[in-house]
Amino acid sequence: MHKKTLLALAGLSLATVTQAASPSLEEMWALVQQQQAEIAQLKSQLNATEQRVAETEEKTEATFAAVEEVTSGPVSKLAEWADKTTVGGYGEVHYNNLTSDNSNNSKDEFDLHRFVLFFGHQFNDKLRMYSELEVEHNIAGEGQNGEVEVEQAYIEYDYAQNHRAKAGVFLMPVGIINETHEPDAFYGVERNSVEKDILPATWWEGGVMFSGELAEGVSYDAGMHSGLYIDPTVSDWKIRDGRQKVSEAKGDDLAYTGRLKYTGVPGLELATTIQYQSDLWQGETFAGEDEVDATLWEAHAIYNRGPFGMRALYAHWDIDNAIETIKAGADEQEGFYVEPSYRLTEKLGLFARYSEWDNQAGSNNDSEKQQYDVGVNYWLDEHVVLKADYMRQEVESGDELRGFNLGVGWSF
Questions:
Q1: To the nearest 10°, the Cα dihedral for 241, 245, 246, 249?
Q2: DSSP-derived pairing of the beta strands 127-136 and 332-343
Q3: Pairing relation of β-strands 400-411 and 218-225?
Q4: What is the pLDDT of residue 103?
Q5: What angle do CA 19, 22, 25 make, to 5 degrees?
Q6: How far apart are CA 112 and CA 339, in angstroms?
Q7: CB contact set of 206 (below 8 Å; sequence gap of 6+)
Q8: For a 10 Å CB count at each end of the chain, is N or C smaller?
Q9: pLDDT for 155-198, tens place per residue?
Q10: Given phi > 0 = left and psi -120 to 50 = alpha, else beta, which region is 210?
Q11: Which whole-number Å values give the CA distances from 54 to 47, 60, 225, in the listed order?
C-alpha cells in the first residue's frame, strides 16, 4: 500500500518537473528569434571582415606595384647613379705678409688661392671618368685676378690586370706635389718654389697615358701628350710660362713622358721622370731657327718613419738651341730642395725646407735663388689644417724677400 502511494507521488512529481522544464510555444518562438538575430549579426560581422580583407589585399597589391615602380623607375636609376658617382674637392685661404728689398715683390694680402671640386663616375668595373674644376683667386673674368680651369677631365680604362690607360686632360706624373697637392697633404702655406718654377706645378696636358705595376712595389707611367709652348719674342724663358693648359693648345709638336716609381718598402717612395719635347716653338721659326728641343729629368725621394719625415727633389731642364735666340742662361734650368719634418703629436707637425733654383743656370749671371722656410701645420681634422711659416728668399744679385704666411686648408 505504502509502496503504491510512494510510486504515485514520485510519478506526480516527475510529471510536474517535466512540465515546468519544457518551454512554452511563446518561449520557443522568442528563442528562435534571438538565435536568428545572433546569426544575422554574425553574418554582418563576417561580411565586414571579408570586406576589410579585400581592402587590405587591394592596398597590398598597390603597395607592391608602387615599390616595383620605385625599384625600377627614375628613383632607382638616380640611386644607382649616386652609388657610382663621387664628389670631392679642396680649398685654401692664404695671408701673405712679405717685404722685399725690391718693393715690387712686397706683398701684404689675403687670397682665396684655390677652390676645387672633383667629380668622378664609375661606368663599370673597368671604365671610369675623373674631372677637376678649379677657381683660382676667387673671382675670374676680364680684368680680374682669378681663373677658372679644368685641370683634369679624362676617361680611364683597365685594359689588363694591373694595367690601365687614360685619355683626356690629366696631371703630369712628375715631382711630389703635382699629382697630390691638397693642402692637408704637404707642409707650408705656399707650394715649394722648385716644383712651381722648374717643373712646373700644377702642370696638366691633354693626350694618352698608360700606367701599371711591373712588379710588387714597382710602377710605371708612359704617355704621349700636348707640350709646352714658349714664344721667345714675349717670354723670359721661364718654363712655367710655357704651360698651354690645353686651351686651344698648339699641337704641332707632341711631348713624351715616362716615370718609374718604387714603393716596395713601407714609408719609402723613390721616383724618376723623364720628358722630351722636340720643339718648344711648336713649329714656328724665330731668328732663323726652326725648332728648339727640351729634355726634363726629375728625381725625388720621400721617406716617413714614425713621426719623422723627409722629402728631397731635384729637377733639371736642358734646352738645346742657338744661344742668341734664348734669354741668356735659360738653356739650363734646375733646382732642388730638402725638407725634413717631425710630427710632435697626431695633430701638430714642424718642418724646415731649403730650396735652391735657377731659371738661367746656363750663364754666369747672378740669377740663382735660395729660400729658407720653417713652420708648423696643425690638423684640426685629418683633412683640415691650419698653417703658419716664416720664409726668407735670397737672390745672388742681392735682393731679399722675407716675411710670414698664414693659411687654412681642407679637402674632402
A1: -20
A2: unpaired
A3: unpaired
A4: 66
A5: 115
A6: 26
A7: 168, 169, 170, 225, 226, 246, 249
A8: N
A9: 999 999 999 999 999 999 999 999 999 999 999 999 999 999 99
A10: beta
A11: 11, 10, 70
- Would the pLDDT of 7 be above 80? no
Residue 411 has pLDDT above 90, yes or no: yes
Residue with cell 726652326: 290
In one-letter notation, the amino acid at residue 254 is L
Secondary structure of the chain as H, E, C letters: CHHHHHHHHHHHHHHHHHHHHCCCHHHHHHHHHHHHHHHHHHHHHHHHHHHHHHHHHHHHHHHHHHHHHHHHCHHHHHHHHHHHEEEEEEEEEEEEEEEECCHHHCEEEEEEEEEEEEEEEECCCCEEEEEEEEEECCCECCCCCEEEEEEEEEEEEEEECCEEEEEEEEECCCCCCCCCCCHHHCCCCCCCHHHHHCCCCCCEEEEEEEEEEEECCEEEEEEEECCCCCCCCCCCCCHHHHCCCCCCCCCCCCEEEEEEEECCCCCEEEEEEEEEECCCCCCCCECCECCCEEEEEEEEEEEEECCEEEEEEEEEEEEECCHHHCCCCCCEEEEEEEEEEEECCCCEEEEEEEEEEECCCCCCCCCCEEEEEEEEEEEEECCEEEEEEEEEEEECCCCEEEEEEEEEEEEC
Cell 683634369 appears where?
152
